[in-house]
Automatic annotation (TrEMBL):
<keyword id="KW-0046">Antibiotic resistance</keyword>
<feature type="domain" description="N-acetyltransferase">
    <location>
        <begin position="10"/>
        <end position="170"/>
    </location>
</feature>
<dbReference type="Pfam" id="PF13523">
    <property type="entry name" value="Acetyltransf_8"/>
</dbReference>
<protein>
    <submittedName>
        <fullName>Aminoglycoside 6'-N-acetyltransferase</fullName>
    </submittedName>
</protein>
<dbReference type="InterPro" id="IPR016181">
    <property type="entry name" value="Acyl_CoA_acyltransferase"/>
</dbReference>
<dbReference type="InterPro" id="IPR000182">
    <property type="entry name" value="GNAT_dom"/>
</dbReference>
<dbReference type="GO" id="GO:0016410">
    <property type="term" value="F:N-acyltransferase activity"/>
</dbReference>
<keyword id="KW-0808">Transferase</keyword>
<dbReference type="GO" id="GO:0046677">
    <property type="term" value="P:response to antibiotic"/>
</dbReference>
Length: 172
C-alpha cells in the first residue's frame, strides 16, 4: 500500500524475518522505547505478530527507504493482557517512525492511515485500538487526527498508565 505525502511516497510493505535485525536495532533505542515501550516487551510483541496468521506486519518506507515498523494484530492474540471492555473483533495497531528525519512530516500519520485502511479492507475487524502512554501527547494527538477516540485510561502492564483509544470500522 502506498500514499504520496508531499514530495515523498510512504509505503507499507510486508515485514519479514530478513528485517528483524533492523527492527530489533530500532527497538533498542531510547527514543523508540519512550514511544513504544521497553525493548523486551516490544521484541516479544513483534515476534508474536510476525509469527501469527492473524497479524499484518509492515515495514514503513519513504521513497523506498525503511524508516519504521508497524503491525496490526487481532487483539485476542494478547489474551488477558488487554482491557476486558475491548469490543469483540478489535485489532490492536502499533507503529513507530525510527528515522528522526521523517518524524513530524506526515510519514507516521500516512502509515497509520494505510495500516488502518488495510485492516478494515482485508479483515472482518469491527474496530482498531491503540494504547499510547498518557505521557506521550504527540502520539495521542496523532491518533486523534487519525480518527481514534479516547475511551478511558488503562494501566498497561509494560507502559503504565495509557490511553485506551478506539476507531470503529467506517460505515458504508
Amino acid at each position: 500500500m502506498t500514499m504520496a505525502g508531499g514530495a515523498e511516497s510512504v509505503r507499507l510493505r510486508p515485514a519479514s524475518r530478513a528485517d528483524w535485525d533492523l527492527i530489533r536495532g530500532w527497538l533498542g533505542r531510547a527514543d523508540i522505547e519512550a514511544w513504544w515501550g521497553p525493548r523486551s516487551a516490544t521484541e516479544a510483541e513483534v515476534n508474536i505478530a510476525m509469527g501469527s496468521r492473524h497479524a499484518l506486519c509492515r515495514m514503513i518506507e519513504v521513497d523506498g527507504t525503511p524508516v519504521g515498523y508497524a503491525h496490526a494484530i487481532d487483539a485476542t492474540a494478547w489474551g488477558d493482557q488487554l482491557p476486558q471492555d475491548l469490543p469483540a473483533g478489535t485489532w490492536d495497531l502499533d507503529l513507530f517512525i525510527a528515522s528522526e528525519n521523517h518524524r513530524g512530516k506526515g510519514a507516521g500519520q500516512t502509515a497509520l492511515a494505510l495500516l488502518k485502511d488495510e485492516v478494515f479492507s482485508t479483515t472482518l475487524a469491527t474496530a482498531v485500538c491503540v494504547f499510547p502512554s498518557i505521557r506521550n501527547e504527540r502520539a495521542v494527538r496523532a491518533y486523534e487526527k487519525a480518527g481514534f477516540r479516547w475511551q478511558r485510561i488503562w494501566d498497561d502492564p509494560h507502559m503504565g498508565l495509557s490511553w485506551f483509544m478506539l476507531a470503529e470500522r467506517p460505515k458504508r
